[in-house]
């Protein structure tokens, strides 16, 4: 965002593991970069994050380095700790999770929040991949987010139960439900559980539904090329672009070119984010303070 405005923070969160948060985060960052935005992906799964592996990167620095730099100097330039992913002149930045697992235990959630604030002032979009738990770090990140993509799959009853508990927890902790987006991944995977039954149980329809495309996803991981950049025909890639279009209020023509955006959409999104920030600052509380305060 220009003129001193803060960038949009989109966080991927789930109460179940192996639901596709990382591959979706990577593809959202890639597609936003493809259509012209300045994007940074933060891998906030501080113990087992693997976004750099998905992209076949060998970063020099990671979140632990940026964290230490900011502790030593509050005015530290975080950008020098980022790694650039580039594919056919399309690029975005990434701040990987700590390479050394032992360093994850020294990560202070509030310090990561300050890193995100710096990234937010630099980039149009900050995409955050999280781990599947209501940790203090995740609650701070969710609290800061403009949009929270709550990702689920319909496979087993325990997974759906956790999805329901997680969604109810997020609703109870947050006064602004408008930033929650319930997204279903791998929708047509073989299961006897009906999507409509799940929606009735959750009390909410899915905001967007992504198809199951194991072959395309596996090929993307194997080649370290995000689906939306590969050029391969894939229903999943198309659906991922549709999700980005929903989040940016843009549309695509038949060739995949993006149409102009509605500036008022961004202004409203920015004002809402600013109001949420002001409410937290004035003691209105947020997800973190309500759960851990």
How does CATH name the architecture?
3-Layer(aba) Sandwich
Number of domains: 1
Q: Helix content range of the residues, please?
A: 40-55%
- CATH fold naming: Rossmann fold
Largest beta sheet: strand ordering: 3-4-2-5-1-6-7-8
What would you give as the CATH superfamily? Answer: P-loop containing nucleotide triphosphate hydrolases
Rg on CA atoms, Å: 18 Å
**Count of extended strands:** 8
The helix count comes to 13
From the spread of the alpha carbons, the general shape counts as globular
Poorly predicted ranges: 276-284, 287-293
Alpha-carbon distance between the termini? 32 Å
Describe the structure in your own words:
By secondary structure, the chain is an alpha/beta fold. It has a single domain, classed as P-loop containing nucleotide triphosphate hydrolases (Rossmann fold). 45% of the residues lie in helices and 14% in strands. The chain is built from 13 helices and eight strands. It has an eight-stranded mixed β-sheet with strand order 3-4-2-5-1-6-7-8, sandwiched between helices. α3 (63-72) crosses α5 and α5 (109-122) packs parallel to α6 (136-144). The protein is globular, with a radius of gyration of 18 Å. It starts with 7 loop residues before the first strand and ends with a helix.
